[in-house]
Design brief:
6-stranded parallel β-sheet; Rossmann fold; elongated; binds adenosine monophosphate; alpha/beta
Length: 397
């Protein structure tokens, strides 16, 4: 398989699929350029090797063909500034005029194609459309992990036009390698920490993780569905009554597979969902009427910490309390600190999923974990055990 480090880009026109789907304000100014910044190293590498770059991305959700609101014209100036060189903007992403612009590109030059989703064929994974895109370049570089779970024309279908000239960009490569360390070849013991509000949204990941982990820490709001299923009193805590059976089943599978299932035994209960609430530490299965569990208690935190700090691989998805309120952030903060300690001792730690990434940033510990995945759906589908079309296409699977 080709990689961006082994491929010879000299004199080649590289079609690079990036994710430039950035947020804009009402004046069409970029409010967060993280995704564009993240794509720069791959582009610079190719240009430095004597290649030229044809950049393609989706942007927003245009419904019926071209819509000036979602034009790449809003991004080209800032992209050019970040790259430190001129970027030409194509009027479309396929067609004779664009082909002529691509053909004229000289080594070191950059062309940004117009929004791929101005053509509905992109999301349909249309092969003819993919072929039109493929005409523009000599090789295909997939550097958009955020769309790797979609079998779209530019993210997967294009691969067949470049049987020997397809590869991951740096972003996708590092995301794939990091996820591999967790999903395929974890150093043991492997621990997954699953938190957040609901068990229903994480059920597929939990089920898949039960096949892989030595320890599964379940925290946050989902705790109470388990506690209730086992006959405990949960007061006004969050619960999903339709998932009681499912919770018991998870416990059963964990037992059968010898997975150490770790859940809160004590919680910080509050008399209101508020920073001003009165609180008390109570057993997780004896929450008084009218009170709700909003954070892990000290005994639970100590248990979580011990398991985490003795792990070789750690996956963290979801907070173990209502960390947005300082009063209920203690458990989540302690989990973060334990992960940092484990990482210092040599463990590989991956944090993924919106809210745990927010927690890591809130507590300022981003530098203390091995890898932070911001890819959302694509990462979650990998953890669920699915094969991503954009990854499989490059690997030729
Ligand atoms: P999710 O999107 O499912 O990962 O859920 C994240 C949300 O779960 C965060 O906003 C937390 O505030 C919330 N959460 C965590 N623990 C609890 C809890 N014990 N009760 C209610 N919400 C919680």
């Amino acid at each position: 398989m080709q990689t961006i480090n082994t491929y010879n880009f000299k004199g080649k026109k590289a079609l690079i699929r990036v994710d430039f789907n950035v947020p804009l304000n009402e004046n069409f100014e970029i409010t967060d350029d993280t995704r564009i910044v993240a794509a720069i190293p791959t582009i610079k590498k190719i240009l430095a090797e004597g290649g030229s770059a044809i950049i393609m991305s989706h942007f927003g959700r245009p419904k019926d063909g071209p819509n000036p609101k979602y034009s790449m014209k809003h991004l080209v100036g800032h992209f050019s500034k970040l790259l430190g060189q001129e970027v030409k903007l194509a009027p479309d992403c396929i067609g004779a005029e664009v082909q002529a612009m691509a053909a004229e590109l000289k080594p070191g030059e950059v062309l940004l194609l117009e929004n791929l989703r101005f053509h509905k064929e992109e999301e349909k994974g249309d092969e003819t459309f993919a072929g039109e895109l493929a005409k523009l370049g000599d090789c295909w570089v997939n550097d958009a992990f955020g769309t790797a779970h979609r079998a779209h024309a530019s993210t997967a279908v294009m691969a067949k036009f470049f049987p020997n000239d397809k590869m991951f960009g740096y972003l996708v490569e590092s995301e794939v390698e990091s996820l591999d360390k967790v999903v395929s070849k974890p150093v043991r013991p492997m621990t997954a920490i699953m938190g957040g509000a609901k068990v229903s949204t994480k059920i597929t990941i939990i089920e898949n993780m039960l096949n892989k982990v030595d320890n599964l820490i379940l925290g946050g709001g989902m705790t109470f569905t388990f506690v209730k299923a086992n006959g405990g009193n949960i007061g006004n805590s969050l619960v999903e009554d339709d998932f009681l059976e499912m919770a018991l089943n998870i416990q059963k599978i964990a037992k059968e597979k010898g997975v150490n299932l770790v859940m809160a035994t004590d919680v910080v209960a509050a008399d209101a969902f508020s920073e001003e609430a009165n609180t008390q530490v109570v057993p997780a299965n004896a929450i008084p009427e009218g009170w709700m569990g909003l954070d892990a208690g000290p005994e639970s935190i100590a248990k979580f910490k011990e398991v985490i700090e003795n792990s070789g691989t750690i996956l963290w998805n979801g907070p173990v309390g209502v960390f947005e309120m300082d009063k209920f952030a203690v458990g989540t903060k302690a989990v973060g600190a334990a992960i940092v300690n484990a990482t210092k001792k040599g463990a590989f730690s991956l944090v993924g999923g919106g809210d745990s990434v927010a927690a890591v940033n809130k507590f300022g510990i981003a530098d203390g974990v091995s890898y932070i995945s911001t890819a959302g759906g694509a990462m979650l589908e990998t953890l669920e055990g699915k094969v991503l079309p954009g990854i499989a296409a490059v690997r030729g699977e």
